[in-house]
Amino acid sequence: MGDPLTFRTDGAHEEPAVTLDSFLDQSNATAVRLEPGEDARALLPYLDRLALVEVAFPAFRDGRGYSAARILRESGYTGELRAQGDVLVDQLAYMRRCGFDSFAPEKPLDPAVVKTSLERYEHPYQATIDGRAPIWKLRHG
Amino acid sequence: MYQYDTYDQSAVDARVEEFRDQVARRLSGALSEDQFKPLRLMNGLYLQLHAYMLRVAVPYGTLSGQQMHMLAHIARKYDRGYGHFTTRQNIQYNWIKLDEAPDILAELATVEMHAIQTSGNCIRNISSDQYAGAAADEVADPRPWAELLRQWSSFHPEFSYLPRKFKICVIASAEDRAAMRLHDIGIELVKRDGVLGGRIFAGGGMGRTPMIAPEIKDFVAADDLLSYLEAALRVYNRHGRRDNIYKARIKILIHEIGAKEYKRQVEEEFAHVKTLGIDPPLAEFDRIAAFFAPPAWEQGLSDDLDLSDPDFRLWVDQNVIAHQTPGYAIANISLKPIGGIPGDASADQIDLMADLATRYSFDELRVTHAQNIVLPHVKKADLYTIWQALDEAGLATANLDLISDIIACPGLDYCSLANARSIPLAQKIGQRFADPERQRDLGELKLKISGCINACGHHHAGHIGILGVDRKGTENYQLLFGGSGAEDVSLAKIIGPGFSEDGVVDAIEKATDVYKALRTDGERFVDTYRRVGMDPFKEAIYG
Amino acid sequence: MKILTGNDLASGDVVWWTGESWSRHVEDSVDVNEHGEAIARAEEGARRVNVPYVIEAQATPEGPRPAHIKDRIRALGPTIRPDLTLKPADPDAGNWVI
């Protein structure tokens, strides 16, 4: 296990995440784990009580979690959004742009490389929900 | 042509440094090959049969003389003096060293070029009509749309780990010169009530399961385009198959759930995405479009041509196309000399084409999906001088769209995925039909060769297609008839048992004999085949 | 016989396992018997080779010759550019490849 990495000021949520099925059955859970094939939109009715959504990346090549993250953020989710699993340093910047604000990588990440990777691109081409102004917006004020 | 501003330049420069860092981490062992592979692929770097191969993007097939010179420079300095133009309108180099790749990208960046997303499971280089901005039949120049998509798709945070690669094509005429409906998403620009918009097709492709893209939307306005594509890609990213690499393309998803259901899901997602404000204002579209304003045409030029030189006349007849502006023409440079390697050009030839573009074609060149080069805007009065220069350099083969204008993938001579060689077969077919009169008599005949089922040589879309397979360790070739990548799009069918290399050349010759015997006036090979069916051809070939 | 091949990590050159190190010439290959996978793992781990794999080959008086056409082409170079092969000066060098 690598060290967890958080970009939230309130720190990482401690309650263990339950599976989506358990979460939907249990009215009091506040943390849920989403597997790649599971529908993030199933969580939309419960965003208010969710403090943590942990999105699983069993294999780094499986990019469904990026869409899951954006869907949750676009729908107003403000709790912790954690990428867990085969999370590689070269993916962090894209994950941040999709709304992930914490990471639980299986293998340790080099903090220096993390920092460089996240600061690499000054401006993005696309508008996402990460609050950064896309290049087209900068061009047209 | 589009020119980078500081934002574009800084993004491309950042990418160079990112890749330099990734290569260093690979060489130090911090990255395993498994982890590094998708990163290098997203910078166009493959490990092929003999070495690393670098695929450099030529966005929508357009480049300047200066950029073309850079391609020659890279061929000389980092490769072995040549490059290979591809069916995706890009160029690739076959003998690249990993530790030099970052330097190559840095040199490319100095002329606003890159290798970003020329491979990998992401949105690839946007392809387009090679005659954009010059064709007499276009409703608009498709390149501003393609450039808008280039920027949107570059470093897309959500769509860089898709189930599989994703190819988008934009054209702007009813005649399809870019195999638009054989793309994951094809966009045909159309005018509705005076407003330009895109007609959207999705789920086309070649590979082992060829499909023609069905229409999923009849009109998307410019200021909805990115939202719409974002929705289309999101549905694919979420629901495209990831259990089987051969079923991971969007065509399989659309085939399995049906175009109607896919469209419904995209519309639903679009209704949501459109609320997010991710579409640039039309001012951004206009900013990009201004770069593609027509050059300052000279007025009052003559359309007359002195065709007294018979070789020149042949070249004009075959390779020169009507331009939208009086006095100008579109000149195709064939990279298919008889007996040559389809799509290859030496550094010297690349330099020469660059010089001709600068001097005679408003500094513009195009790369075509048929692996040829175009000088899009030349004065008719300059054609003879251009032809003489090309002829001297071995670049004046007058065979555009004829049987020797063969599309061929690199095949087993270079490619680690190939099962059979493509290039020697292309050479033999070219030699068999070398006589210019014989070729011209056969008329338009699009022959396309792939060395494996991945179909990089577009064999499904050939009037005559050839697929190389491995039969117990020996190269074997299947013959297919009746495909087209044009507006009469169709998928070729296998005619029967396969052949040896020489056998397939003989079979093609027999097929052309059948065509000559059965054709009616004006019929192309593919028209006759469609009319009479496969039987007469099979009978002649298998007897 | 079984021989081990791969590409050099930095240069990408096709290389062959000689029993001690890696050579650009297939003729230098040795029979790895059942040890191929273990050697491949160790050598790849040490980054002395990239993507190594074991192939079948025949022993000939000229040295080992890969059984499959793909590796025979790898061993010499593209068949359509003799000038770019390992033996550009020898017109007969490719006779055993195809």
Estimate what percentage of residues of chain C fall within beta strands.
15-25%
Order of helices and strands of chain C: EEEHEEH
Strands ordered across the widest β-sheet of chain B: 1-2-5-4-13
| Classification by helices and strands of chain B | alpha+beta
Q: Give the rounded overall mean pLDDT of chain C.
A: 96
Q: Which regions of chain B have little confidence, pLDDT < 50, spanning 5+ residues?
A: none
Give the beta-strand count of chain B: 20
Rg of chain C (CA only): 13 Å
Organism (chain C): Sphingobium boeckii
Protein name (chain C): DUF2849 domain-containing protein
InterPro entries (chain C): DUF2849
Pfam family, one (chain C): DUF2849
Give the key terms.
heterotrimer; B: 543 residues; alpha+beta; Sulfite Reductase Hemoprotein, domain 2; Sulfite Reductase Hemoprotein, domain 1; Alpha-Beta Plaits; 4 domains; 5-stranded antiparallel sheet; 17 helices; C: 98 residues; 5 strands; globular
Topology (SSEs and partners):
The complex is a heterotrimer of chains A (141), B (543) and C (98).
Chain A: E1 5-6, E2 18-19, H1 20-25, E3 31-34, E4 52-57, H2 64-74, E5 80-85, H3 92-97, E6 102-105, H4 111-119, H5 135-140
Parallel strand pairs in A: 2-3, 3-4, 4-5, 5-6
Antiparallel strand pairs in A: 1-6
Chain B: H1 6-28, H2 33-41, E1 45-47, E2 52-56, E3 62-64, H3 65-78, E4 82-85, E5 91-96, H4 101-109, E6 127-128, H5 143-153, E7 168-171, E8 185-192, E9 195-202, E10 215-221, H6 225-239, H7 250-257, H8 259-273, H9 282-291, H10 310-319, E11 320-322, E12 328-333, E13 344-346, H11 347-360, E14 364-367, E15 373-379, H12 383-392, E16 407-408, H13 423-432, H14 436-442, E17 447-450, E18 464-471, E19 474-481, E20 493-494, H15 501-518, H16 525-532, H17 535-542
Parallel strand pairs in B: 6-7, 7-8, 16-17, 17-18
Antiparallel strand pairs in B: 1-2, 2-5, 3-14, 4-5, 4-13, 8-9, 9-10, 11-12, 12-15, 14-15, 18-19, 19-20
Helix pairs in contact in B: 1-2, 1-4, 3-11, 5-9, 6-8, 7-8, 13-15, 15-16, 15-17
Chain C: E1 2-7, E2 14-17, E3 22-23, H1 36-45, E4 50-58, E5 65-66, H2 69-76
Antiparallel strand pairs in C: 1-2, 1-4, 2-3, 4-5
